[in-house]
Design goal:
The protein is α/β, with parallel strands linked by helices. The protein folds into three domains: 38 residues, no CATH class; 129 residues, 3-Layer(aba) Sandwich (Rossmann fold); 136 residues, Rossmann fold. 45% of the residues lie in helices and 17% in strands. It has 13 helices and twelve strands. The strands form two sheets. The chain has a six-stranded parallel sheet with strand order 2-1-3-4-5-11, with helices on both faces. Strands 7-6-8-9-10-12 form a six-stranded mixed sheet. Helix 1 crosses helix 2, helix 1 crosses helix 3 and helix 10 crosses helix 11.
Length: 337
């Protein structure tokens, strides 16, 4: 049996580079000479490349296997996402292949290639900021749905929560509670669009209200003592509120504030993201912005399967609403004037 033609085979037959063949196959030949374009066209026809590629896609679609790439599997958010995906896919007789990127582009590339070789029908991905550029260059003709942090809101298939709006509205909530100074604790915003939206929503509203704020950038290697030292620069003021933009950062901030627990919430407020069960169990309990993670997983699966099966019933872009789980850490008593 003859093996399936590859881009390398076409390039060799047409006597051009693989990059040139890639441009042709992606319709990017406006600057290509007519002679080069004609050679590639003839080589594609002789190798039956397009017919074989189309048949391979049809075969993969029948596999009912979906590749899922998660940025951080240790987060409760990811666990709820996967549960939503699994429940809906199981009901539709689809199976999941999970990969974990740790928000590293090369890990994403490895997962995509491995899953493609296993014949997945499509992908559901929590992407880094550079993922979509890489994806376009990989020339994999399979549907892909982005969740949590799509990089472009105007194209492709995606589902996300209203991170910007949720952070923006949280400022109104905190100001009404009487907080007057704010500290934003975030991981590197440049890596993930979600972080950028949460930071921008919070900061934009504070600047509109002319409220003072500071920003601390931390990562998973930041020691609790180091974070406490940074926070202490702002804890001398009363009516200060700290906003941790992710679950794992909230955990670090909470531990860093242990010596100041008696000042929460009357002098120090604390707002977090997606802490789920543990935020209700600590004393004082912690107010959080909660994303509908299970629903987001379900919707991502619906969008992808709708695309694979060609039913065209599901909106390709969807934004879900978060809510504030108001607990003790922001139960501030306004200072009497």
């Amino acid at each position: 049996m003859r093996s399936k033609a590859t881009i390398s085979d076409i390039a060799k037959l047409a006597d051009v580079s693989k990059t040139t063949v890639s441009f042709y196959l992606n319709g990017k030949y406006s600057k290509m000479s007519e002679a080069t374009r004609s050679k590639i066209e003839d080589a594609v026809a002789k190798t039956n490349y397009l017919e074989e590629e189309e048949q391979a896609q049809k075969n993969d679609a029948r596999n009912h296997l979906i590749g899922v790439i998660i940025g951080d599997i240790t987060s409760p958010f990811a666990n709820h996402i996967v549960k939503g995906l699994a429940d809906y896919c199981s009901a539709k007789d689809y199976h999941l292949m999970l990969g974990f990127s740790d928000y590293q582009l090369e890990n994403e590339r490895h997962c995509i290639n491995s899953m493609n070789q296993m014949g997945v029908s499509g992908y559901i991905v929590q992407p880094t900021a550079q993922f979509e550029i890489m994806w376009e260059g990989m020339q994999i003709k399979k549907p892909i749905v982005y969740f949590d942090s799509p990089n472009h809101n105007t194209k492709g298939l995606w589902v996300k929560t209203n991170n910007y709006e949720a952070a923006y509205n949280a400022v109104s909530f905190l100001i009404k509670k009487g907080y007057q100074h704010f500290v934003l604790v975030t991981a590197d915003p440049s890596k993930i669009v979600t972080r950028q939206e949460r930071c921008r929503g919070f900061v934009d509203h504070l600047e509109i209200e002319h409220m003072p704020y500071d920003v601390i950038v931390a990562n998973k290697e930041t020691a609790i003592d180091e974070l406490r030292e940074q926070l202490e620069l702002y804890l001398k003021a009363k009516d200060v509120c700290i906003y941790a933009t992710s679950n794992w950062l909230l955990n670090k901030v909470h531990m860093a504030l242990e010596p100041y627990a008696d000042r929460i919430p009357d002098e120090i407020g604390l707002l977090g993201m997606d802490s789920y069960e543990w935020s209700r169990l600590v004393v004082p309990s912690i107010t959080t912005i909660v994303q509908p993670a299970y629903e987001e997983g379900t919707v991502a699966a619906k969008i992808l399967i709708d695309k694979i099966e060609g039913t065209n019933l599901e909106p390709p872009n969807q934004i879900l609403k978060s809510r504030i789980d108001e607990l003790e850490s922001t139960d501030h008593k306004k200072t009497e004037m």
